[in-house]
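Protein modeling request. Please complete all fields; requests missing the sequence field cannot be processed.
Requester role: graduate student
Desired output: 3D structure, token encoding
Chains: 1
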Amino acid sequence: MKQPLRILSVIDIPWNSGLAAYAFDQALALRGAGHFVAFACPEGSAAGLFAAREGFRNFSIPDRKDFLRLPLALLRLRAAALEEKIDAVCAHTGRAQTLGLLLGLPLLRVKADVKKPAAGFSFFSVRKTIAASAYIEKLYLDAGLDSAGVTVIRQGIKLPPPSPRQTSDPVKIGLLGRLDPVKGHACFLKAAAELLRSGAKAEFHFAGYESHVKYADLLKIAEELDITASVVFHGRVEGPFKFMAACDVGVIASLGSEAVSRAALEWLASGRPLVSTSAGSLPEYVSPAWLVPPGDHLALAGKLAELLADPARIKILGEENRARAARDFSPDAFASATCAVFEAAVSSLSPSPDSRSSIPDP
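Delivered output (362 residues):
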């Protein structure tokens, strides 16, 4: 490793999200390689809680709605960056990118959200952009921006202990994700109704925290479809893997978004077959054979029916997914690619071809 770097990771959103999860994994990877990472984030935010829990230095900045405190916060952050001898700023949002530019340090941009990039005044000061998926890289191309400075580095995932499937009826089909219209819970319920009307022996399990949809809303849909006896609502669960281990098949029914998909990685690592829509980056994780158009509940029901008709295939596909997670999404590969980009950007050198994370298409 070259001289250890001192990095300030700026993330101004208060909530947890795929963007935040990527930032957290990145910080752990850099620290694991011997680099120093500090956070700049709002008090009480998911990033602040993560920094406190994992022992990262944390500097408070206003959230994105508090413009009045920003000038004073910037002065304090510049003083802190000088005191900590920060080498580079890593910005995880557009506003954080502007803030990083004002600090006058080498600037890297990490993009793990679906928002379309734009060539603002701070865009041309970014030394390197890390895109968390090829889908995000394409957002730069579609916006007419030069993607030469963009490197795709997909998250890695540590495999949980093996959880062999318990052969039994009914087959348990699960969806884990926050309750939001974009996650397609209603579409999944309609697919469940189609399967049950065809005589399938299956249960449909939902887990995740309430956001713009309530469990009462989903229950009402299930009642209208007359499938409540086969639907189980778990509410918010602590970590994904216990829920996934209790399921036989995973589903991602998202209608859009999915700039990155932590849930897809988790289903693969859990050793479960995954049927998914083709929204966002999901085709980078899921084989074309198990993708369906967003919002097409009949297509989703059809793919699930294929699995229900061949129980042995459920086991085989689950094992293949777990092996692919270990091979193509290893934490070591993620850390190596991440460190190479940061080290090259700070030293003003271009990353070598080997530093580019290139996950083969399914």
